Amino acid sequence: MPKVDDIQKIQKLNQQLADLKSGKEVEARKMKAVLSTAQQKAIKDKWNAQLKLRDEVKARTKEQQQAAGYKSKREVQIAVYEEAINDLNPVKAFEKKLFDLEVRQMRIYMDSISEALKEGKTNEQAKSIANNNLTRAGLARMDRQRVNQHLNKRDKEVFELEEQLKKQLGIKDIHDEDET
Predict the structure, then answer these.
(1) Which residue positions in the chain have pLDDT lower than 50?
(2) Where are the domains of the chain?
(3) Exposed (0-12), middle (13-18) or buried (19+): which is 35, by Cβ within 10 Å?
């Protein structure tokens, strides 16, 4: 199973939190996929504290239970989920994802150029080979040549949204620096 990045984790945490608040049950394996071991331990510890509280303080009515601080297991899970969401920073996660993408792009480009030059190719041939490898990897080419113009409507909307987010957050792409 692929590793879940922070952006996906935020989305899944929000979705599972909404499920918990609406009364739906969230499977343990889904919780385990998005919560860290410390957060999973926090759920267990808080629930054990609730069980201990119930042994020490006997409350028969709802008012007595609320006054004593009784919480259901779902309420304990919701509290931990809210803490987990507050701990994650979506802007930082987005910047990390962009950085990782740029590192991958540069690694492919530089490895391809150096390999082509070792094979005796000219500079232009090496750059062309490197750009072709970037295209195969689904990344932007360094020569800015547009390929894959057959994008569907959803992809175009996603790229436009990413551009808006970059402008809104003040994030500069490595290609933006060349334009100035």
Answers:
(1) 178-180
(2) 6-88, 91-179
(3) buried
